[in-house]
Amino acid sequence: MRSHSADCVLMVVMITALPAAAQVRLSWAEDATLPLQDAISRGEREIVVPYEGKPWVIRPVQLRSDLTILFEPGVVVEAKAGEFRGIADSLMTGRGVNHVTLRGYGATLRMRKADYAKSDYKPSQWRHCLVFNNGSTNITIEGLTLASSGGDGIYIGANSKTHPPCRNVVIRNVVCDDNFRQGISVTSVDGLLIENCILKNTSGSNPQAGIDIEPNLPHNIIRNVVVRNCQALDNAGSGLLVGVSHLEAESQPVSILFENCLVRNSGMAGIRVKGKKVGGLLLFRNCTVENSGEFVNWNVPILRYENCKWLPRGGPLHIEGHPNRP
Fold this sequence. Notes:
Layout: H1 4-16, E1 24-25, H2 33-41, E2 46-49, E3 56-58, E4 61-62, E5 67-71, E6 76-79, E7 92-95, E8 98-103, E9 108-110, H3 113-116, E10 130-133, E11 137-142, E12 145-147, E13 152-157, E14 166-172, E15 175-177, E16 182-186, E17 189-195, E18 198-200, E19 209-213, E20 222-228, E21 231-233, E22 240-243, E23 254-259, E24 262-264, E25 271-274, E26 280-285, E27 288-290, E28 294-297, E29 303-306, E30 309-311, E31 317-320
Parallel strand pairs: 1-2, 2-5, 3-6, 4-7, 5-8, 6-9, 7-10, 8-11, 9-12, 10-13, 11-14, 12-15, 13-16, 14-17, 15-18, 16-19, 17-20, 18-21, 19-22, 20-23, 21-24, 22-25, 23-26, 24-27, 26-29, 27-30, 28-31
């Protein structure tokens, strides 16, 4: 039989193990920046953005570690008109954060791409919907539509040579629509899964791709990257673009797999790869390109195709060296 003191000890242990705060639901405000940023800054671990039948209008929001934000179906989070004047002002940014989840099946995060092209805005290609950079780790983005940014739907990477890569990032069941530069840009990451995503209608600033994996510096890392069951549709540039020209023979080897992906109606080559110095493996497996230009890649020894097809043949042929493709 346990003593009274043992029961007391057990009770104390159980109480101290409880989480500090329960789920917090935001109350709608005409400018929702302050209630959202305040909930993040005061350490709430799980924040719910409820459906209220009208947009949640915000200015740039900074994320922190150990955070989950849940967007209910039908929610629209919208960039505030007349704001985002800085050339790198993004809707939500996580710099060096850990354990962050943004989940919103049926919810949309939307910026004002057309506004940022006006003369009273400084030209920029960096007004993104979501940014995770500078060593951000254990990041999950799930179920959201990310639309009409002045840059990328999602940017994953490192901003300078002193910053480490992002690690363990999952982007699943996401739609990136009508973004200015890319649906998704990746510049430095170790461990990335992009799964069941649609990247469409990118147009505005080159490369205008669905997905662009393109390190900026020789020390950047592109490792353990898997893009699976994704569709790149109606993009003004390439559907799938991998540019490793900035990596050197001394850079860390790359490892990238595109599997079961569809590219359709690209304005340029459906699949484009450039860069020839770095080692590693870039594999396209069971991918299909429809109604897009073909691309013949020269001197890209890391590139392999397995069971890929281009339909129909006879589209614009972009020549870049020795054909390492079916």
